[in-house]
């Protein structure tokens, strides 16, 4: 399925495909060659990455009981939604960061039951810092640690500082590396995007986003379904969807931390959004209706990828 969703690229590949894998400030100590990948190889590697992510994502939502019954529905939904737009189909920093985001989802959902929250929170801070080395807006995910604590545990100031400490540990070593290489001024420039105001104007070609119509429809139906069953669900399930909702919001709004906005940023919204879509399809009762909606979603995506 991951390769099928990229059929438009395989039939009509571009002659050249420029892409970034990590942030410029990370290239000082980590150089990853990208020019040797042809467009077909790029898209194929991206398909493999999405397939692996889908399996990991499927395992997480099954382990936490976020769908009606275990299966591979979550993986299928993840692969389809990860193919909404052409920029989603190639290797990009947010695509790589989704490995870390799925890992964070698992950690945040375990937080309420953990006997060692300090270690888990410290590890989460380090994971977010590693993600920020790949794609700077990922650093905004640090807010999710505190939001998860608010929803999962009583206040404990030691727990609230563990996430930032883990984050600062990675960037402390990065600062030392910059200092050794007489580039400490460049290290300070890493944080300049945080001073940006939220973009007031987006240049949008609305015809490129028609493929979102069936996604929005499914999200609305899923929200109605979740609302009907919300108070009948286990506390853990309710808390999980609250955390995932805020993860989606934070991922969406973190676009302000990237001066040069690109549509592939919204790949960070896919893991949290896919949970709600999988929840709908696993709980829907009218078979012909939800199968028809899924078919419409698949065909709509394929149509707009080709045109």
UniProtKB/TrEMBL annotation:
Keywords: Membrane, Transmembrane, Transmembrane helix
InterPro entries: DUF6427
Pfam families: DUF6427
Domain of life: Bacteria
TM annotation in the entry: 40-60, 72-105, 125-149, 161-180, 200-220, 240-257, 263-281, 288-306
Protein name: DUF6427 family protein
Organism placement in taxonomy: Bacteria, Pseudomonadati, Bacteroidota, Sphingobacteriia, Sphingobacteriales
